[in-house]
Amino acid sequence: MRKILNIIILFSLCFNICSCDKTDINNNNSLINTDHLEQLYQEINIKDNILGTIWIYCNAPDYNVVTDDDEGYTCVDDVSRALVFYCRQYKIEPEIKYLKKIQSLTNFILYMKADNGYFYNFMFPNNEINITHRNSVATPNFWSWRALWALSELNMLESPQLKDLQSKAAPIIEQLIEKISQQFSNPSETVIVDGINIPEYSITTGNDQLSIIIVALTNYYQLNKSVEIKNLILNLTDVLVKSQFGNKDLFPYYAFMSWKNIWHAWGNMQAYALLYSGRVLQNDILITAGINEVKYFYPYCIDNGFLHQFKLVNKNNSLIMEDYNKFSQIAYSISPMILASIEAYKISLDEKYAKQAGNLATWFLGNNVANQIIYNINTGITFDGINSENDVNYNSGAESTIEALLSMQAIESNEIAKRVVTNYK
């Protein structure tokens, strides 16, 4: 029955998939298509306050938005993703359509703030905040960090129309940064996991989450330079640096672990966070660490058709890979590598990193183990992932859609990378 359903979905999508070919890409001036993201966007009015929301789930074959009974229909995590995208797009094209999205999405994030300084995550279709789901409680967790990142992007914009909103966001940013400073005030202790020395913060919080915090703090630092913020950034980046293993000849080729002694592809922003903060702080240690992963580990991933997850263990003084998984592969696995590769080019001006970013982006256009176009440039639809060589998730939710757009946005910023994408066969 599942095979029959997949065949039906495949045929119903055939026109959309086939219409997104190389000719279309070359004839289109921009790689960015926000049509599907705008379909996921919905404004709500709460006490005369216009809040912009993003539907989390959107299912094939009809691509109608759907809610989740336990979670809700929208969340701070994905609204924050969208806000990051629109803030960066507004810098490129300061158009009113982006400005309005920035305003409404920011209003939603601010509305979801809890009294303790963190954020609730989910909202139900009746506009009720979900305060009980484990991934919605206002705690120091990934959705609060992504909200901080998004608000820090907002406050970096130069626009008279945003001054009032930025003033509202500023104390909320500062309150959350104060909590981060308290949580990570001391250098991380070290614990041994499977024979490997791992910073404790990598276990309690995770390097993927720390990376989001580092990017947000680096944004904040550029507007509010202080020794305290710089030291906080360095304290957190030190955790990432100490979570890097291998060398150019030894597996895992300078990869940064994501959580404990586990590397996972989704949200692997460690190199991007180090390169970005290293560039802003002019810190060669951070830059070198980030460059090494981009230079040696990313090509390994590309050559092996990408990875999903593995665990690193020490056996007889040798680093061994265990619990290896190739799938699933999703947009959120590829986008951080593209951002890091573009950042590596900005720092080094070495064209190989820009070309690598372009090569990574071709994963979205069919250069993957399923030979499947994942991002349709004609519709903006991004499939939710590849489950195996013969199994594609044709749904197109918020995370996939926005991560693809962030990827294409980064590629658009670099002529070398974009040339690789537009020339892809």
Give the secondary structure arrangement, pairings included.
Layout (H helix, E strand, L loop, with lengths): L1 H18 L2 H6 L7 H6 E6 L2 E6 L2 E3 L4 E3 L7 E2 H17 L3 H16 L10 E2 L18 H13 L8 H21 L6 E4 L2 E4 H5 L2 H17 L3 H15 L2 E2 L9 E2 L5 E3 L5 H12 L2 H20 L5 E7 L2 E8 L5 H18 L2 H11 L23 E4 L2 E3 L4 H15 L2 H8 L3
Antiparallel strand pairs: 1-2, 3-4, 5-6, 7-8, 9-10, 11-12, 12-13, 14-15
Q: Care to describe what's here?
A:
The protein has 425 residues and is of the alpha+beta class. It is globular. Helices cover 51% and strands 14% of the residues. Helix 12 (284-303) packs across helix 13 (331-348).
Outline of the structure:
The chain is an alpha+beta fold and about 425 residues long. Helix content is about 50%, strand content about 15%. The strands form seven sheets. It has a three-stranded antiparallel beta sheet with strand order 11-12-13, with no helix packed on it. A two-stranded antiparallel sheet has the order 1-2.
Descriptive keywords:
3-stranded antiparallel sheet; alpha+beta; 425 residues; 14% strand; two-stranded antiparallel sheet; disordered N terminus; 16 helices; globular
Helix and strand content put the structural class at: alpha+beta
Distance between the termini: 34 Å
* Fraction of residues in helix: 40-55%
Average of pLDDT: 95
Summarize the biggest pleated sheet: 3 strands, antiparallel
Cross-sheet strand order for the largest sheet: 11-12-13
Radius of gyration: 21 Å
Low-pLDDT sequence parts: 1-23
Beta-strand share of residues:
5-15%
> How many alpha or pi helices?
16
Number of strands: 15
Shape verdict: globular
